[in-house]
Amino acid sequence: MPAKKDKTESPEAQSERFRKAVRDLVDAGELNPTETDKALDKIVSTQLPSEPRAKR
């Protein structure tokens, strides 16, 4: 289980903690950046409207 979050953590420290967690997942083979990008592209492409909405 992740350690309890420090409520006074700076944005820089939070960003570094996140980057370390991502590196750990990639190193463990649990996160594949290429597959993740493809999955995100698929999600976004299905959520975007095919035509811009008319202003009301």
Describe how the helices and strands are arranged.
Elements: H1 11-27, H2 33-47
Report on the architecture of this protein.
The protein is mainly α. The protein is 57% helix and 0% strand. The protein contains two helices and no strands. The chain starts with 10 loop residues before the first helix and ends in a 9-residue tail after the last helix. 0% of the residues are buried.
Short description:
The chain is mainly α and 56 residues long. It has two helices and no strands.
* Nearest-integer average pLDDT: 84
What are the low-pLDDT stretches, counting only 5+ consecutive residues below 50?
A: none
- Structural class comes to mainly alpha
Pattern of helices and strands = HH
Considering DSSP H and I runs of 4 or more, what fraction of the residues is helical? 55-70%
Portion in beta strands: under 5%
- Overall geometry comes to flat
How many runs of DSSP E, i.e. beta strands?
A: 0
State the helix count. Answer: 2
Write down the Rg: 18 Å
Largest sheet properties:
none
Q: State the end-to-end CA separation.
A: 49 Å
